[in-house]
Amino acid sequence: MATTEIVTIQRRRKYHWPEAQLNFWLFIMIVSSAVILGVFAYLTAIQNTLKLGIPWILPYMITTSALAILFIIVLLGLISQRQLLPGIVVLGSFILFVLFLTGLIETSIQLYGPSGAVNSYCGSRPNTQVIDSIQTAVYLANNSICTDWRAAFAFEIVATVFLLWMMVMAYQVNRDDFD
């Protein structure tokens, strides 16, 4: 009796990622996530020092930016092994996009919202001609907090746009449609 042997050849598909754009994206996302993490951790420390309640956006954005940094570390590991799949990138980027977009909306409400918004306290200067050291310290602390909120808002916009860009880029890589 003759035996029949079936041999299957499995070809592994290679995805060609544009190196310059991928490195630029990784750099911008690391910077954005680190700045957002640092700013909201600092604002949480200020709230704790003043024994004030902590708005939900502070721990939310700390967690979201930490997840983004973890996602970037995973991507770097996959890149080093040449196993970066577009599906993983699209899924992770979409999840982070939704998280950052939610944080962006709430940050804009906290910063520019109707009443009691952070921005309404920004720019207030001491009233008197003679400015003592306590008024100056209060003004500088207030100015620092306002600047931190604005920086976090700006970097959330950057992160959200770059996550959308990464989803488009991963789709193009999947289709071998990248020029």
Question: Which secondary structure elements does this structure contain, and how are they paired or packed?
Answer:
Elements: H1 19-49, H2 57-80, H3 86-112, H4 133-174
Stretches with pLDDT under 50, minimum 5 residues: none
Describe the oligomeric state of these chains in a short phrase. Answer: single chain
Largest sheet descriptor: none
Structure class: mainly alpha
Into which percent range does the helicity of residues fall? 55-70%
Shape: elongated
Query: Quick one: how many beta strands?
Result: 0
What is the radius of gyration computed over CA atoms, rounded to a whole number of angstroms?
A: 23 Å
Structural account:
- The chain is an all-alpha fold.
- It is 69% helix and 0% strand.
- The protein contains 4 helices and no strands.
- It has helices at residues 19-49, 57-80, 86-112, 133-174.
- The longest helix is centred in the last third of the chain and has 42 residues, at 133-174.
- It is elongated.
- The mean pLDDT is 88.
